[in-house]
Amino acid sequence: MTKELLNLPVPHPQPGDAGVAWLRSSVVRFSNGEEHLRRRALTTQLLENVTATTLEELATRLALPGALDDIATIAGSYQLHEPITPEADAAVERLAPGHDEVTAARIGLLVQAWAATRTLADRLRTGDPTPAVPITRRATAVGTIEVSLTDHPFGHGPHACPGRALATRIAKNMAFKAMHHQEDPLILPNAWDHASAAALHAAGFRAIGTTSLGVAAAHGIPDGMGKAGDQATALAKLLATFPCPVTADLESGFGKAPAEVAELVADLGVAGVNLEDGRPHGLASPQEQAELIRAVKERAPGVFLNARIDTHWQGIALEETEDRARRYVDAGADGIFVAGLTEPRDIEKLATLAPLNVLAQQRTPQELKNLGVKRISTGSLLFRAALHHTVATATAVRDGEPTAKSFTYEETQDLISRGTRSDAGSAAGTASAGWSPAPGR
User: Fold this and answer.
1) Are strands 282-283 and 278-279 parallel, antiparallel or unpaired?
2) Residue 272 belongs to what H/E stretch?
3) Which of 112, 141, 171 is where one domain is finished?
4) Which of 6, 125, 396, 415 has a Cα at 20 to 30 A from 402?
5) What is the pLDDT of residue 141?
6) Residue 158 CB: number of other CB atoms within 10 A?
């Protein structure tokens, strides 16, 4: 029944020559018939080939740089049931003094993206399955009715959201960054293929990373030598459309120049990346690594860059680690990851510089939280545990002993569901995560 209701026309706004009234009467959101078809084609054209990792980037790509303060003001008066404020009228006039339909389309796109992605990001961060936009409105012979979007978070029919992929990417970036600034540390398990990521998502983890050792070893390639780039990026792209933020371990960029790594990160579609200063034959200089970090953040500012510092594994003093951490944060890194860091005093000191990531260790998440840690990742632990379990199970079969518990065939098949499958193309494929940026365009 909901599909049929969503095929109904949208309520028509009162016409206007200026301000919000003009905007409402000029955008695809409140259009029907031939007018809607024309404006939707214009909106789709504006979104064509647009890539952005933040709302600020999106505003720039839509030729409205620096407009988000005005967009936020307009958003409070945009919907037909919301009162129009003088401030919202003034904001529209600042952004569209010429009152042309193209600018109206740009403003409408940004208003709906601003309102929905912020809510969606919070839903993803907390695990709330409620759609970011829970209802939409349709016109009937007896008046305006409200239609639930629970089963169709991107809308359906002629007004289905055309910017789904872009909006969800921005929302996941926002959510993933926020996960590093909450009270409790983010527990980040690291997957090595689609099935392991799907199982972790099904277990309730709100974000998933990849493990360079797991990916490389699964393909018969040594870790840390920069030789598993194709495999690592292929997995990152496969997981990028999961209904949760995904961060990819890119080692040190697989030998690519900073500009190439930056383009790679922008193209992957993931919410975060790990970039380490370790190289196949030693450490990069702090200047070299800072240049890499700066290039990536300039190209993909919304992607959370976790700067891994490999000094501790090489027995280098804390002072060098701290110096590198400061340089990397100054270059734009969003967080720092010191592999091998275990001493409480060292953890406390480095945790003051930026959100600190450490590997899972004997201390509990609460103990690490008390030391200031914001992210606890499993690294290659899960992959190594899976190898161990595989060998132990095979040995038990050979020796006629009981085997340990495992997923059933049906449970494994169910993991590759519409909610996690990377080719899930319908709204139903993301309903479990509450994805619903800007329906009704």
Assistant:
1) antiparallel
2) strand 272-276
3) 171
4) 415
5) 86
6) 19
